[in-house]
Design a protein that fits this description.
Elements lengths: L1 E6 L2 E5 L14 E4 L1 H15 L2 H5 L3 H14 L9 E5 L14 E2 L2 E2 L1 E2 L3 H5 L2 E2 L10 E5 L12 H10 L3 E2 L2 H10 L3 H4 L2 E3 L3 E2 L5 E7 L2 E7 L8 E3 L1 E2 L1 E3 L6
Parallel strand pairs: 7-14, 11-15
Antiparallel strand pairs: 1-2, 1-3, 4-9, 5-6, 8-12, 9-17, 10-16, 11-13, 13-14
Helix pairs in contact: 1-3
């Protein structure tokens, strides 16, 4: 645990656990875990990227919706390898790829919004209840590169992992766009459209791109992304 000074919605770290020099009194100090600090950082990022506008609410209201989950993390030992994911009921996924970027190159897609909205979580991979939830130990699925989605799905299942959904893949591209350069692009097997296609995110024209592949197709540059768990606020009680 570390001590943080709360200033409005921002937490300022004090590594030695003490007060700032030359101050008579400290502001309110709260103990925050590594996971809660990481979740707060990710919340700050998506607020800065305009997610409250997508949700059509104020930034303060948007932050307040995440507060119960981040507060529940204060006594957890999840660490920093987590993703804070807003559900599509709060933020629709159609416009989110354009809010990602790498080296100032904005993400893009050639799919129409209706097409993107058609990629729904499959049975068994529905998000926990609440406007926000956590993905634990997300990975781009390097070990499943160049595998057909249907084949990769069986391998992920046998390894006792969970395939990521469209919303979770967009969270990776938003919070960790460098993974697309350092690791690989990825399919998101937890979501499918009615015609069987699987959403994918990869690098194209030096920017993140949202597209889709057929379940029997194979691509050398695409892994199949996964996590080890999903956690909603109710699972911390």
């Amino acid at each position: 645990m570390q001590l943080y000074e709360t200033r409005g919605t921002t937490a300022v770290v004090f590594p030695d656990g003490g007060c700032p020099m030359k101050r008579r009194r400290c502001s309110t100090l709260v103990a925050m875990s590594i996971a809660s600090v990481e979740a707060q950082k990710q919340l700050d990022r998506i607020v800065a990227l305009g997610y409250p506008d997508v949700a059509d609410i104020s930034a303060a209201a948007f932050r307040s919706l995440a507060r119960p989950l981040i507060g529940a993390l204060e006594h957890s030992d999840l660490g920093s390898n987590i993703l804070l994911v807003p559900t599509r009921e709060l933020v629709s996924p159609e416009s989110l790829i354009a809010r990602t970027s790498i080296n100032r190159m904005a993400g893009f897609t050639t799919m129409p919004p209706r097409d993107i909205a058609s990629f729904l979580p499959q049975d068994g991979f529905m998000p926990p209840e609440g406007p926000f939830y956590l993905v634990v130990n997300p990975h781009t699925g390097t070990c499943y590169v160049n595998r057909e989605p249907d084949v990769a799905r069986k391998l992920i299942d046998s390894d006792e992992r969970l395939p990521l959904t469209l919303e979770e893949g967009l969270a990776i591209a938003t919070q960790h766009p460098e993974w697309l350069l350092e690791k690989n692009g990825f399919n998101l097997l937890g979501s499918r459209s009615a015609d069987g296609r699987v959403p994918s995110i990869w690098m194209s024209q030096n920017a993140p791109r949202l597209g889709a592949v057929w379940p029997n197709s194979r691509h050398t540059w695409l892994g199949n992304a996964y996590c080890t768990a999903r956690r909603g606020v109710s699972l911390f009680k």
